[in-house]
UniProtKB/TrEMBL annotation:
<feature type="transmembrane region" description="Helical">
    <location>
        <begin position="68"/>
        <end position="86"/>
    </location>
</feature>
<keyword id="KW-0812">Transmembrane</keyword>
<protein>
    <recommendedName>
        <fullName>Transmembrane protein 42</fullName>
    </recommendedName>
</protein>
<feature type="transmembrane region" description="Helical">
    <location>
        <begin position="29"/>
        <end position="48"/>
    </location>
</feature>
<feature type="transmembrane region" description="Helical">
    <location>
        <begin position="92"/>
        <end position="109"/>
    </location>
</feature>
<dbReference type="InterPro" id="IPR037185">
    <property type="entry name" value="EmrE-like"/>
</dbReference>
<dbReference type="InterPro" id="IPR039632">
    <property type="entry name" value="TMEM42"/>
</dbReference>
<keyword id="KW-1133">Transmembrane helix</keyword>
<keyword id="KW-0472">Membrane</keyword>
Length: 118
């Protein structure tokens, strides 16, 4: 379940990056065909992301964990893609937030020890 939710976040980030690439003049230039192809690939990648998300929802006992894991992993990975691929600036606050999100993901995704209190 957690694996599928994390993959949904990864594919969602890839779809976001493709959407931004489709509008980047240095990549597309004046070609509507290149932009259209990238947008079609973006839709396919986002569809794949939705597939993984729905599979994680199907396997989970509730919708909270898959939603948080998918959204948080997508947010953090989109930030890294923005910094590395698009040379966007990052601040100390962003890095602190990303670390807190990763720590929260670790808490949500860890297995529950049901025998601890018995």
């Amino acid at each position: 379940m957690f694996h599928e939710a994390f993959l949904a976040g990864i594919w969602g980030s890839a779809g976001s990056a493709l959407g931004k690439l489709a509008g980047t003049e240095s990549v597309v230039g004046d070609s509507y065909a290149i932009s259209g192809v990238i947008l079609i690939i973006m839709v396919l990648v986002n569809t794949w992301s939705s597939r993984h998300y729905l599979r994680s929802l199907d396997a989970a006992p509730n919708s909270v964990a898959p939603t948080v894991i998918s959204a948080a992993s997508s947010y953090v990975l989109s930030g890294f893609i923005g910094i590395v691929l698009f040379e966007e600036p990052s601040s100390t606050q962003w890095w602190a937030g990303a670390i807190l999100i990763i720590m929260g993901l670790t808490l949500i995704a860890r297995p529950k020890d049901r025998d601890k209190f018995t």
